[in-house]
Design brief:
alpha/beta; eight-stranded mixed beta sheet; ten-stranded mixed beta sheet
Length: 631
């Protein structure tokens, strides 16, 4: 009888181990250390949804520092080890797929040493685009190559960084949808689509999560045990005496405050609070006992969508979150980065709704045109050379002060370089202080590039910096990018041999266009933008002529209107920050006073005046002694 039981047990199909239990027993991270379930308590829901055959797709809309790639790779490895079968790893770029394959191999090696029995091939037989196991193969594909998906049949699929896939039409459809088609022949296929969201109307992960269960993670208060969704306004920190926030002080004093009982939780209890979180779909809530109550909004949804912000990362602290927010909130581009990467929410493109009449009423001040405000510490004059004939130089004079305070002093159109020189040397009145000259002059080098380089190089001095600027449409270029001609790039070294050493500052368009949008939409005299009370319609229409399209690209709001003064304002804001942070290491300069009237020359002495006789001192030269010859 015992032999029959042994034979039956050998022939009976084994039930695969739960993915979460498999990872806790054999799992490892890319650096070779064991999988720590206490570090990723939010990943258990992902593993359970991955194991559920009733769930077609698992959507992960997660922020950074949460382990979404590590969790997704662990699920792929666990299923390949227990169930076998082929899989597909889809990514937006070829280099990303190569890094992901290398990362999976590092994890699989560590899991194999822990008893995972994956059957990895030797290193000389591995490829950089595929992951080979004993009974399965994971093929890597990337965006823009739909032909690579041909003749593939997969039982499991991982789409990484879905929002970064190319939206261009390749003639065969969307790459993400083509990758999902590879698993349509398998009714029990396992699919994970993970990404950090980007733009609202173009976000694939946002659309997938909205059509799914759309679950969020609720965490309990250690004192009252009420569950809440974490948000930025619940994090408190101490401020300076003047009421402003300092990032270093916020890093040391940040804590979380419960919205119900106002109890403040420090980092000592943060681990316990986050590890006891509960997932609940949209439309439901979690009571004090940790039970999900209510009716889900998408009651009949089969896909599981999980939204998780970086507030739940156990590798961060309340102080780290507060410090990072204070670093990013300085600009609209930083706020977009915080929304996408830290709050895990899609960014809505900025659509300009301000008209020139409302902008003049909201931003108008009592300072007359051509007068520098008394609080000004940096005066910047910006020129934007037009590309088409007749060549003109729209110019804008902006006053800057610490704390982000700006004021448009004067504006106009210059007809020649000689008129630009007059404006550069002009003294502008300032109440209670001597007349001031611009300390910083910027010129757009998009048109007549070599001529702009020569003009800037010949006029810069110790008392006035004349800088050539250029717009930069890249999204990862920061707030400013200075370079010296003839030093960094070969193309400019060949094109400007006579201007070697000339400073050129690249102005990121996306970051500063969003900054101008925020300044025009809001009214804050202390930390915003103000205009002279004589601001006319052409200036205001020019400043308001900018908006974002559906792709997130900044374009003209009205094609028949110019935006030259808006570009001047963009260059002025960027170069003022570059001057203070890059050249002066955070110290604000004082205004450059106007040159004083020339003093009359000292009269020459009278001819009959006695002159002191000068005595010429002759230097005595010692004779050189001859060398003695050795005998």
């Amino acid at each position: 009888m015992s032999h029959l039981r042994s034979a039956y047990g050998a022939l009976r199909a084994r039930r695969p181990m739960r993915t979460w239990d498999w990872l806790c027993q054999y799992g490892a991270v890319p650096d070779g250390t064991a999988w720590d379930p206490d570090l990723y308590p939010h990943a258990e829901r992902v593993c359970d949804a991955w194991d559920d055959p009733r769930v077609p797709i698992v959507w992960l809309k997660w922020g950074t520092r949460l382990g979404k790639s590590t969790t997704s790779h662990g699920c792929m490895i666990a299923s390949s080890s227990q169930l076998g079968g082929d899989g597909v790893l889809a990514g937006p770029t070829k280099p990303l797929i190569e890094r992901q394959v290398e990362r999976i191999y590092l994890m699989a090696q560590a899991m194999d040493r822990r008893g995972g029995n994956l059957g990895l091939p030797p290193e000389h037989e591995r490829t950089i685009h595929d992951v080979q196991f004993a009974e399965s193969l994971i093929t890597g594909v990337w965006s823009g190559s739909p032909t690579a998906l041909g003749d593939l049949d997969a039982i499991r699929l991982l789409v990484t960084e879905a929002d970064k896939f190319s939206h261009a039409n390749t003639g065969e459809g969307d790459t993400v949808e083509l990758a999902r088609e590879r698993a349509k022949n398998n009714p029990d296929a396992q699919i994970i689509v993970e990404s950090t969201p980007e733009l609202e109307r173009r976000s694939r992960i946002q659309a997938g999560v909205k059509a799914s269960t759309n679950e969020h993670r609720w965490v309990p208060c250690p004192k009252c045990h009420n569950h809440h969704l974490l948000a930025l306004d619940q994090i408190l920190w101490d401020k300076l005496r003047d009421g402003s926030s300092d990032k270093d002080l916020a890093y040391r004093t940040a804590r979380w405050q419960c919205p119900s009982c106002k109890y403040e939780v420090s980092d000592d209890l943060r681990w316990t609070m986050l590890s006891r979180g509960v997932w609940a779909p949209l439309g439901c809530y979690v009571d004090r006992r940790g039970r999900v109550k209510g009716t889900p909004k998408n009651f009949y949804a089969l896909d599981v969508g999980l939204t998780l912000g970086s507030f739940h990362s156990l590798m961060l602290t309340w102080g780290g979150l507060a410090r990072r927010w204070l670093e990013l909130c300085r600009s609209a581009g930083g706020i977009q980065d915080w929304t996408n990467s830290w709050e895990a929410e899609a960014w809505t493109p900025l659509r300009s709704t301000a008209e020139w009449e409302t902008v003049r009423e909201r931003l108008g001040s009592d300072v007359p045109r051509g007068t520098v405000p008394a609080w000004c510490q940096l005066l910047v004059l910006s020129f934007d050379l037009q590309r088409e004939w007749p060549y003109r130089w729209p110019w804008l004079l902006v006053a800057h002060a610490p704390g982000g305070r700006r004021h448009v002093v004067d504006w106009g159109l210059a007809e020649s370089w000689e008129e630009c020189d007059e404006l550069r040397q002009k003294a502008w009145p300032q109440p209670g202080k001597p007349d001031a000259q611009p300390l910083l002059v910027t010129v757009d080098s998009g048109a007549k590039t070599l001529e702009v380089y020569r003009w800037c190089n010949a006029r810069t001095s110790l008392t006035q910096r004349v800088v050539a600027v250029k717009g930069d449409s890249r999204t990862d270029s920061g707030r400013y990018r200075p370079e010296f001609l003839g030093v960094t790039t070969r193309a400019r070294r060949l094109a400007s041999k006579l201007n070697i050493g000339q400073l050129l500052v690249h102005v990121p368009v996306n970051a500063w266009e969003a900054e101008i949008h925020a300044l025009l939409e809001e009214r804050d005299p202390q930390t915003g933008l103000t205009l002279a009370r004589e601001a006319d319609k052409p200036l205001l229409e020019d400043l308001c002529n900018g908006t974002q399209d559906e792709k997130g690209t900044w374009v003209k709001k009205h094609d028949n209107l110019p935006n030259d003064w808006r570009d001047c304002l963009k260059y002025s804001l960027c170069l003022a920050e570059c001057e203070v942070e890059y050249f002066r290491r955070g110290f604000w300069p004082g205004l450059l006073p106007a040159p004083a009237a020339p003093t009359p020359p000292t009269p020459a002495p009278a001819p009959d005046a006695p002159r002191k006789p000068t005595r010429r001192v002759r230097r005595r030269v010692r004779p050189r002694r001859p060398r003695r010859r050795r005998s």
